[in-house]
Amino acid sequence: MKRVENYIHGKSQSSSNNFLDVNDPSTSEKCAEVVLSNKNDFNAAVISSKKAYLEWSNFTPLKRSRILSKYKELIEKNIETLAKIISIEHGKTLDDAKGSVIRGLEVVEFSCGIPHLLKGEFSQNVGNAIDSWSIRQPLGITAGITPFNFPAMVPMWMYPISIACGNSFILKPSEKDPSCSILLAQLFSEAGLPDGVFNVVQGDKDIVNLILNSDEISSVSFVGSTPVAKYIYETSAKNGKRVQALGGAKNHLVVMPDANIDQAVDGIMGAAYGSAGERCMAVSVAVAVGDIADKLVENISNKAESLIVAPWTDSSSQMGPVISKEHKDKIENYITSGVEEGAKLVLDGRNFKIQGYENGYFVGPTLFDEVNKDMKIYKEEIFGPVLSVVRARNYDEALNLVNDHAFGNGTSIYTSDGEISRHFTTNCKIGMVGVNVPIPVPMAFHSFGGWKQSLFGDHSMHGTEGVRFYTKLKTVTSRWPKSIQKGPEFKMPTN
Ligand code: NAD
């Protein structure tokens, strides 16, 4: 049986004998086991990261950037292998897995430009013969805790930038699909990264708590569910750490009566059912404005009925299983609760079976119509292939739905009216907004992050926000006054 260990100081190692099963969601069979690290493993990672930081932070930014360029090449060469590892343990289709690696790779590409991004600011003669400049310096040991749904992309939102900035980084991946973190770390070593700059410690919440309470770790980046994000934020802040904690979502896609309905339906299909709805930017609510609702529901239902649900090994698959038996049960319970609360179940994905894969964690595409804002299926994140259609009488009602929801990750509007679209992008209380684009995930050189219960902390991820998060600002004021001797001054110096 394959064992997924830690990757510490350039090699696979762990002292814990405690292992957790990793299951293939398409079959429910065990495909690996992952070590649940103990305190010794964690301490080994911290000692290694501390030593590595001293050396790495003194590398010139250009040397760091060259290693990242080599890393980019190696990821490109290994993209098929990485995607396959993700599909086996996560269940998503191979194309989707590959796409997610490419989106992570874009952050590596962005980080190759780090000499430019670390340039500071300089002011000559802020006083008589006095110059002043600001520089950004690394934090030290940084840590990342990541969710199951993007085992390559989400860690890559974090560590390439942190490491490019001169920090060392400890990754605690999801215990549900841990294997690709090891290949990502091995490839970085192969690219020339000194041992210990990137360590991977496997495990569950016990390791997370060691990270949050370690005096040696200066910052925590987290992506996962909202209750855990809130806990990470509060505990890290209490312990004096810099923290960014991204949480869950309930993304609304507003369809105006003047929208191109075919485009809107295609957009909704991919965004609601792609990756079995297990994306933080998935669309889980379609807000149908005015008289477009009947047509919209009918067209989505027709397309969803013929969606190909199959394991990743079937190249025609458009949607795979969800991550676990517990998660499948949770999603099916939400569907039952929607029925009980009076929503109209147009397509029911419960008890979905595929011949030969009867034990797989498959949930069929599910569609609810006539959902209202008091229902549990509207208020809570389901994180599965369940789309709720809410009918709104007009644009103002649709905007209020978006703004009154507790989550604020992403939203989108489909319309052919520029004025409405501008009003929406200006006035919605959401971090990432699309216009006629279903999943407005920012590119690596912009920053990713929601508002409200979707992000705790002050910084989004990657882009210049990432560089700011992983560096501390220092401002130097300097004088070389060979000929100036004024004696001590006791008032505030002014010009
Ligand atoms: P999760 O919160 O269960 O787990 C995330 C990480 O936290 C894992 O590494 C896990 O081991 C650890 N963890 C779990 N429970 C913990 C606890 N009690 N104390 C400390 N650590 C704990 O999330 P998940 O199920 O892996 O991922 C799905 C969630 O992630 C969804 O809510 C989704 O919306 C969210 N997500 C958000 C974004 C975003 O950018 N906002 C991106 C991807 C996923």
Description:
This protein has 495 residues and is of the alpha/beta class. The protein has 2 domains: 3-247 and 454-477, 3-Layer(aba) Sandwich (Aldehyde Dehydrogenase, Chain A, domain 1); 251-435, 3-Layer(aba) Sandwich (Aldehyde Dehydrogenase, Chain A, domain 2), CATH 3.40.309.10. The protein has 16 helices and 23 strands. It has helices at residues 39-56, 61-77, 79-90, 94-111, 114-117, 153-164, 179-190, 205-213, 226-238, 261-273, 293-305, 325-340, 376-379, 395-404, 418-427, 463-469; strands at residues 3-4, 6-8, 11-13, 19-23, 30-35, 121-127, 130-138, 141-145, 168-172, 198-200, 217-223, 242-246, 251-255, 283-289, 344-347, 366-369, 386-392, 407-408, 410-414, 432-435, 451-452, 455-457, 471-479. It has a 7-stranded mixed sheet, sandwiched between helices. A 6-stranded mixed sheet has the order 10-9-8-11-12-22, sandwiched between helices. The chain has a 3-stranded mixed sheet with strand order 1-5-4, with no helix packed on it. The longest helix is centred in the N-terminal third of the chain and has 18 residues, at 39-56. The radius of gyration is 25 Å and the shape is globular. The model has no long low-confidence stretch (mean pLDDT 97). Bound molecules: nicotinamide-adenine-dinucleotide. The site of nicotinamide-adenine-dinucleotide (NAD) has 28 residues, from helix 8 and helix 9.
